């Protein structure tokens, strides 16, 4: 969060505090995603599938909490993709989500269109 202090100077604060060792100290995307899903569950909203698109190392953290029905879209050759590949090699079965690497957003769009087409 950002705001002006008493002198009118813009100050930036951490998004939240967390104990995740992988993420930067100001924000853990896994915690944000988990809190969002918990909040929606309290509102009786359940998701059949979570789709997560990312590329950075800090996107690996939330992708690691995805279930077998979910889909992770790591950008090919970027840290998130490399970390998923390393995890799948070192600890088979730990990373549960389907993995759909992409180079262009059009690939993600095509996947989503096909997913919607199969549902209709």
Automatic annotation (TrEMBL):
A Pfam family: Put_Phosphatase
Signal peptide per UniProt: none
Transmembrane segments: none
GO MF term list: phosphatase activity
GO aspect biological process, one term: bone mineralization involved in bone maturation
Protein name: PHOP1 phosphatase
Organism: Horornis vulcanius
Origin organism lineage: Eukaryota, Metazoa, Chordata, Craniata, Vertebrata
């Amino acid at each position: 969060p950002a705001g002006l202090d008493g002198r009118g100077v813009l100050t930036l604060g951490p998004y939240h505090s967390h104990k995740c060792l992988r993420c930067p100290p100001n924000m853990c995307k896994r915690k944000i995603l988990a809190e969002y899903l918990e909040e929606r569950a309290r509102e009786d909203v359940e998701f059949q599938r979570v789709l997560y698109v990312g590329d950075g190392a800090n996107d690996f953290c939330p992708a690691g909490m995805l279930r077998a029905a979910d889909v992770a879209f790591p950008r090919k050759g970027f840290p998130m993709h490399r970390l998923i590949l390393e995890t799948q090699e070192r600890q088979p079965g730990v990373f549960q989500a389907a993995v759909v690497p992409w180079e262009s957003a059009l690939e993600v769009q095509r996947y989503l269109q096909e997913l919607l087409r199969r549902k209709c």
